[in-house]
Amino acid sequence: MSDTHRTPDPAQPEEARTPQGEASPPPAEAKEKKPGAFGADVYTWLQALVVALTVLLLFFTFFGRVIGVDGHSMDPTLNNGDLLFLQCVGYEPQQGDVVVLHKDFGDITTPIVKRVIAVGGQTVEIDYTTSTVYVDGVPLEEDYILEPMEQPDSPYAQGTYWEVPEGSVFVMGDNRNNSADSRDNRLGPVDERYILGKAICTILPFQHVGLVH
Prior knowledge:
By secondary structure, this protein is of the alpha+beta class. It has one domain (61-211): Umud Fragment, subunit A, CATH 2.10.109. Helix content is 12%, strand content 26%. The protein has one helix spanning 37-62; strands spanning 64-68, 83-87, 98-101, 112-119, 123-127, 132-135, 138-139, 161-163, 168-172, 190-191, 195-204, 210-211.
């Protein structure tokens, strides 16, 4: 009768040698996460957050800024409380741009948001009977205004014709009947140096997020 005893294979690891018929030992459990790994993940995440915030801070410091809309002079284009991102560096005012400027006049001592109607060297004429604004004698197509213009009651805003000096802009709100702007002779055409920047987009509230036209 043949001998059924098997000689152990010396090449086989000791722990893998099991008597015939016996079950192999269960595989080793997966290594547990090293203590402190969670803290390392949090530290890495915080580092990334700090870098992102630093980049944003530098961007807003040198290239733009964020400012809120206060009031209803730009309805329906912008609403009270909207948060705007402004382009500040390398900006040259253009007709039709929405800008934020800061020049005290009358009771107004905070930045205001207005639309550029004309730039330096152009003329502005307003016909309140037809609610029409003319720039260099050409009527503007203003589908952005809230409602037809009415003659202002303010004694400071009775003018209807302006010549805009070089380096200045003539601005008006889209809500013409509720806007203190260049029609007020205490402000008039505004030196471009008072412009803080061009409104590029609204970033808050979320339902108003979008480009400013």
